[in-house]
Amino acid sequence: MAPKPTKNETPPSNPPGMFAGMVVFLVPHGVQSRRFQIWKQKLAQMGATIEERLTKRVTHIFAMNPDSLLQQIDGERLSRFKGRVLLYQWIVDSLSSGEKVSEDMYDLKMESEEEYEAEKSKPVKAESVSSGDDDEQSNGKKMKSSAGSPPASNESSLLSKDSYNPPDLNKNITEIFGKLVNIYRALGDDRRSFSYYKAIAVIEKLPFKIQNVEQVKHLPSIGKSMQDHIQEIVTTGKLSKLEHFEKDEKVRTISLFGEVWGIGPATALKLYEKGHRTLDDLKNEDSLTNAQKVGLKYFDDIRQRIPRKEVEEMEILLKKAGEEILPGVVIVCGGSFRRGKASCGDLDVIITYPDGNSHKGFLPKYVKHLKDMKFLREDLVFSTHSEEGTDSGVDTYFGLCTYPGSELRHRIDIKVYPRDIYAFGLIAWTGNDVLNRRLRLLADSKGFRLDDTGLFPATQAAGGKKGAKASASLKFNEEKEVFDFLGFPWLEPHERNL
């Protein structure tokens, strides 16, 4: 249920033919009768044709949430429907802005666990919520639940292309839910973990501060249990369920071990079951890989953030070193540095070469040069694919580096992309993860799979479900072209701290 607009707001003018050409079927379930009649009347007054049943003429179905939609229309009929299925919020926001807003972020669809599993494998940035993938590369990146943003108006609307507002005014809720995502995943309860994950995706893009659960009770993925949690958080500022978990020795230990680079939830659980309880306990654990041992040794170093001034100087060093090996090479420091943050958790370095060919074989020479300079100190992951053309031709180095004159270790990730997929790498490794998640889900809603190596048409699996990504990506030279194709508002790097 949307919150009431403030009394001193001046409502925008609504053009008489604003909804001309739309043939609309309205699902009444879950909507107050008076509000339903007002929306119906407004649509008709402004040019829309209202159908009392779902006919072949219908271009748009509106519903309050997935449950109310399925009470009226069965899944088989929905699968045959060729038009758009939107949240009622689209009508509210269009009337509020005085023009039709973009439909893309109002699509009402049932999220699948396939989306969640695909999401877990993406390169997302790291600050508070573990990605949960139990391998060295994916453990190196963490999924942040949210970031702060300036206040927005109290007019309820979901994020759209034409009325964009920086989200997460509800960090108090999403941070708690993010911790529960990690905890349940670490405990092997993927279903509960997925439920909180879906709720975060809905809550983090609301441009109003949740003050009462009535404001969100009809939103998708916010069921009775989530409503109770939200009510407790907005009332007390905390959640008893999380406090219970945080007092539990098993949960505390698994969470601690999961903070070590290279140790994911499954490994953390095994270490706990072996009787380990502290990081000191792990120092004599023979089963740890070399990379995990490095992560353990420099645990405290890696957790320290890097001042922006130091990153600026290291970027100059990285560019100069690259020019000495391959003049004209393009080297960019991404992540929170590219987004303009005052400090960074690590260095994300994205590299390409304009001719689309000379990047091949560059990374081994570059890494050797940086080691000779005593800049790169310890290796974590080193894989090259550009010359043999495997793994999309992307070369990868993860390791530890030091600021000149210091012995403090910092995490550094270096990715070398072929020029024709560089834009995708730049988007993924700039972040933030909230934006990356939105772009991937938006791509999925349009029948594509988006990752750091391209935008791929999704193949069809058995039963008409979306399957794996196709082998060939669409081609875009610039980041903005990807945003434009997906119908998402263009954001400069410093605007991506969602």
Summary?
It is built from 21 helices and 16 strands. The chain has helices at 33-45, 66-72, 75-80, 89-97, 113-120, 136-139, 171-186, 190-203, 224-236, 240-247, 249-258, 265-273, 279-282, 290-297, 299-303, 308-325, 335-338, 362-372, 422-430, 433-445, 479-486; strands at 23-26, 49-51, 60-63, 84-87, 129-130, 142-143, 306-307, 330-333, 343-344, 347-352, 376-383, 395-402, 409-416, 448-451, 454-460, 466-469.
Please, could you describe this protein's structure?
This protein is α/β, with parallel strands linked by helices. Among the domains are: 23-106, BRCT domain (Rossmann fold, 3-Layer(aba) Sandwich), CATH 3.40.50.10190; 145-245, DNA polymerase beta, N-terminal domain-like (DNA polymerase, domain 1); 248-297, 5' to 3' exonuclease, C-terminal subdomain (DNA polymerase, domain 1, Orthogonal Bundle), CATH 1.10.150; 306-417, Beta Polymerase, domain 2, CATH 3.30.460.10. It has 21 helices and 16 strands. β12 (395-402) and β13 (409-416) form a beta hairpin. α7 packs antiparallel against α8 (190-203), α11 (249-258) packs across α12 (265-273) and α16 packs across α18. The protein is globular. Belongs to the DNA polymerase type-X family. This is DNA polymerase.
